[in-house]
């Protein structure tokens, strides 16, 4: 797929990744699993930035359909991402992985404010940086926030870890004949409406020449293999 070994990555995780078998909330077992996968990256001298979604706790768009103002719903979603970030930070603490949780919204009682230079210093010291609250602005998804942070923090790749093993020509859960597409261009995603990341996020990565890798989260060791340039998942670039 891509033979390059990455030194600094942006790991994008959906809030649903933390559900496990639960209908909502955070499964501590899944949280611990993700922490151990990140520990493998840290031990391989890969610097890691993590951005979470918040769909396991609250979805702003769904709330809007039921009458809540979009801005209010989006801010509630941002708070949910901070909760997810703190949960992962705690799981990393438990196994001795140094980390810092930062937030795009000011909540100094529970975590650091997101400050680019401070985040860069943490990364240079080998700490995992978990950035919550999306971009801090309503109307922007956490996919877009991930792309923004990847650009700001000089990440070499955005790794989107999902429930499936890459990008398919049709839904693999519904179609047994679905075929994985290992390599795509940014415009393939934008023109064919693949549900990978929203168009703003993809365009940001395209404009800044940051590849997007899509792979399976719950397959042990996959993220490390991808960051070492091994042939797993799908990659969007060029």
What does this structure look like?
This protein has 238 residues and is an alpha/beta fold. The chain has one domain: 3-Layer(aba) Sandwich (Carbamate kinase), CATH 3.40.1160. It is 37% helix and 18% strand. The chain contains eight helices and eleven strands. The strands form two sheets. Strands 4-3-5-2-1-6-10-11-9 form a nine-stranded mixed β-sheet, sandwiched between helices. Strands 7-8 form a two-stranded antiparallel ribbon. Helix 1 crosses helix 3 and helix 5 packs parallel to helix 7. The longest helix has 25 residues. The radius of gyration is 17 Å and the shape is globular.
Could you name the key traits of this structure?
single chain, Carbamate kinase
Topology, element by element:
Layout: E1 8-13, H1 28-43, E2 47-52, H2 60-65, H3 70-94, E3 99-103, E4 112-113, H4 116-124, E5 128-132, H5 142-152, E6 157-162, E7 167-168, E8 180-181, E9 183-184, H6 186-192, H7 199-207, E10 212-216, H8 222-227, E11 234-236
Helix content range: 25-40%
Query: What is CATH's topology name?
Result: Carbamate kinase
Shape by Cα distribution: globular
Number of domains: 1
State the end-to-end CA separation. 13 Å
CATH superfamily: Acetylglutamate kinase-like
Strand arrangement, largest sheet?
4-3-5-2-1-6-10-11-9
Quaternary form: single chain
Average pLDDT over all residues: 94
CATH architectural arrangement:
3-Layer(aba) Sandwich
